[in-house]
Amino acid sequence: MKTDTAYPNTISDDLIKEFQDRGFVLTPSVFDRQELADYAAAVDEEVALRTSDDSRDVLDKSTYEQSFIQCMRLGETSQAVAPLTFHPGLAGIAAQLMAVPKVRIWQDQALYKEPGGRETDAHQDQTFWPIGDVPLISAWIPFQDVRRRDGAMAYVPRSHKPGPLQVVDITHATTPYMILDDPALLGEQPEWVDVDTGSVVWHSGFTVHQAAANDSEQTRRVFTVVFIADGYRRTKNWPVFPLDRAGVGVGELMQGEGLPLVWPSTGILPEPPTRKGQLTGPQFVK
Ligand SMILES: O=C(O)CCC(=O)C(=O)O
After folding, report:
1. Tens-place pLDDT, residues 126-135
2. What is the pLDDT of residue 286?
């Protein structure tokens, strides 16, 4: 199969170094406004479909649901969203920032923070999953300009360096660990990042991050895509939908259905898996 190894978006050495030193970086103008508006419309449509039977007011939702409407793996259920999830430009940036030759999709999701929606508690992503220290990076792609009062993100500089800290239960099923007080962060404070439409903010799997409450009148519409380096093995047996669906056991390479290679790009969209996850929420179920 023909693969393309020329990056559609070449990232400067300075930005790569910034990401590796600080654990997050903003890449400006990854999408032009019209291209992103088309993707945004596709994601809006899929989120609307998946949540059509939920008319609850934000304040009547669970604490977790008040942080955002969460719809995962939209690229598997919407042909119009798939080109965003599997966008070679994004996958190529992920490969450059992680400095790895091959990249797989871990997940995509819409995180729509409603007006009046609460903050997203500070946490690390990678400690949620039984995947050890595989290089992992997340692209945070807002569909509109986002400032702190809209629900912007803040990242703790260099917080990826100590690796895994205590897991934060952002679902609030148990009291979440106050990770911002962890001594391993050496007193570093979260830095708020304003993002303009078309730009993308990237963070590493161990970077501590949070999002502000949405004090605006509009829903904060964000799409995220999480990438892992190819060639790493599952490290723990606790359940996780994408590895369990692909039949990846402990010690086996993380690959298979729903975990497609996206860099280098083949230019062909992957076949959607036959088994889909839950329509909303964190897709805990096997
Ligand atoms: O957008 C948010 O509210 C949280 C996003 C987040 O935690 C993530 O992308 O890892």
Report:
1. 999 999 999 9
2. 53
How far, in Å, from the CA of 214 to the mean position of ligand 1? 13
Q: Is 160 in the pocket of ligand 1 (CB under 6 A)?
A: no
Residue nearest to atom 2 of ligand 1 (CA): 211
106 lines ligand 1 (CB under 6 A): no
* The 120-123 sheet, strands edge to edge: 120-123, 209-211, 153-155, 191-193
Interval between CA 16 and ligand 1 midpoint (Å): 21
Token pair 């959607």 is found at 272
By the 8 A CB rule, do 19 and 283 touch?
no
pTM tops 0.85? yes
Q: How many CB atoms lie within 10 A of CB 245?
A: 20
For each of the domains in the chain, give its residue range(s) and CATH number, in order of start: 13-263 (2.60.120.620)
pLDDT average, residue stretch 147-151: 98
